[in-house]
Amino acid sequence: MILSQPDKGWSWVALFAAFFVMFVEGAFMGALGIIHLALLDRYAESNMKTAMAGSLFVCMNTTGGILCSALVERYSCRVVTVTGSLLFTVGLLICALPVSLDVVMFAYGILAGIGSSLTNTAAFIVVGYNFKQRINIANGISASGMCFGSLVMPPVVEMLRAYYGNTMIFVILGCMSLQQAVLGALYFPAYLEHSRKKRTHNEKTKQSSLVKSVCLHWLRMLKNASFICIIGYLCLLQLGAFVNYLHFPKFVTTLGFTSMQASYLLTVKGVFAFFARLLLAAFVNSNSYNIDLTTLMFGTCTFMALASILLPFYGTSFPGLVIFCIFGGLYGDSVIGILNALNIDIVGYDNFASATGIEFAVMGIGIFVGPTLVGLVIDLGGTYTFCFSVTGAILLLAGFLSLIAGTLKSPHRKELVQGDQVLDVFLEQNNSSEEDRNLYKTNL
């Protein structure tokens, strides 16, 4: 079996595929509020119940990361992506049938959400298995695919909804999700993925089941105080971010603007998010100022928190909404592009895939709770500006958690050996083996 080497050859093809898988994911995330409007128009149910469909979709998208990481450990990123794409498509096609909102909540929220989770999480993991020296820039490129999708697709989805209606739009979305199966077929086996499985093969064969193996990985990582702070940060970050994703288009229409204008605002957000992820990844990849990743996370979270808290004072006009979208794009969740590097930094390669799954699962909790509670507040007579201000305070708390994570992180020592241009990385963490260190020296 020919294995793709880190940072070389087919690794770039895998990155290309991951970019467009993330593009499809970004299209759905960017159009989340548009789909919410379609369901409100189609069923005329309460804001809270309708919001639960979108919240369940994104919750399953992230919570299913645990399942995805376990399946990647057992099979491969390719198998997981193709399977997820098929589930994603079936769930969306069911929504095109004359069914109730309860069925849509299951098909779109749970079935399509789990399928989306498999493709989304595998796209993150496959980049980590194909890159080492250029992992930050590779993560930035793949993560920017989601931003590019959220940049391009919201107006397109809104135009298609206006032309084909609130039912047939799900058929079109199903055709889009099916393309991920083709892209997933390009995830060839990688050397880092193979070597990681080989190192843990003996341990797994001694264990009674895959579930037991995965649980042992989780328990080891949950002893890491810095990792606990990171997953708390990600939970609160996504709670605030997806309140904006789901409810922002409806908020815009309550101010007297059209749903098409709301989709244009989402495009503005996508433009700035696209460049923010690329620039942040490039900065971290060079990092000539030696700034800690958790410090960057605190800074981006704080700016987004202030933009949300102050929204009632400037967000009632269209220019004010544009400013809010610019801040949302620049600082909303741009740190996702450096998540792989942060995980490797904190838990090491042995626990990298499992850490990604746990983080996505915890993010799903925040994603489900935030938009659903906002829907309840709106049904009870609350205002969107009040809800956005509260989520801003939550984002500020998330930023402080990232700072705490930085203080609890184990120290690293990195030396660049000038003679042969080999990066000698000594990972002084309990959960990074000697073989990990030799692997760095061999491949870099």
Describe this structure in words.
Keywords: Membrane, Transmembrane, Transmembrane helix. The chain has about 450 residues and is mainly α. It folds into 2 domains: about 1-195, MFS general substrate transporter like domains (Growth Hormone, Chain: A, Up-down Bundle); about 210-420, MFS general substrate transporter like domains (Growth Hormone, Chain: A, Up-down Bundle), CATH 1.20.1250.20. The chain has helices at about 10-30, 30-45, 45-65, 65-75, 75-95, 100-130, 135-185, 190-205, 210-220, 225-255, 260-285, 295-310, 310-315, 320-330, 340-345, 350-380, 385-410, 435-444; strands spanning about 415, 420-425. The protein has a two-stranded antiparallel ribbon. Helix 2 packs antiparallel against helix 3 (about 45-65), helix 5 (about 75-95) runs antiparallel to helix 6 (about 100-130) and helix 5 crosses helix 7.
Give a concise summary.
This is Monocarboxylate transporter 4. This protein has helices spanning 10-30, 32-43, 47-63, 65-74, 77-95, 101-130, 135-184, 191-205, 210-221, 225-254, 259-286, 293-309, 311-314, 318-331, 339-347, 352-379, 384-408, 434-443, and strands at residues 413-417, 422-426.
Which features does this protein show?
mainly alpha; 444 residues; Growth Hormone, Chain: A; Proton-linked_MCT; two-stranded antiparallel ribbon
**Major sheet strand order:** 1-2
CATH topology of the largest domain: Growth Hormone, Chain: A
Question: How many domains make up the coordinates?
Answer: 2
Fourth-level CATH superfamily of the largest domain: MFS general substrate transporter like domains
CATH architecture of the largest domain: Up-down Bundle
CA-based gyration radius: 21 Å
Main β-sheet description:
2 strands, antiparallel
Arithmetic mean pLDDT: 80
- Low-pLDDT parts are 412-444
Percentage of helical residues?
A: over 70%
Q: How many H/I helical runs? A: 18
- SSE ordering: HHHHHHHHHHHHHHHHHEEH
Structural class label: mainly alpha
N/C terminus separation: 22 Å
What's the CATH class label of the largest domain? Answer: Mainly Alpha
Shape: globular
Strand runs, count: 2
Beta-strand share of residues: under 5%
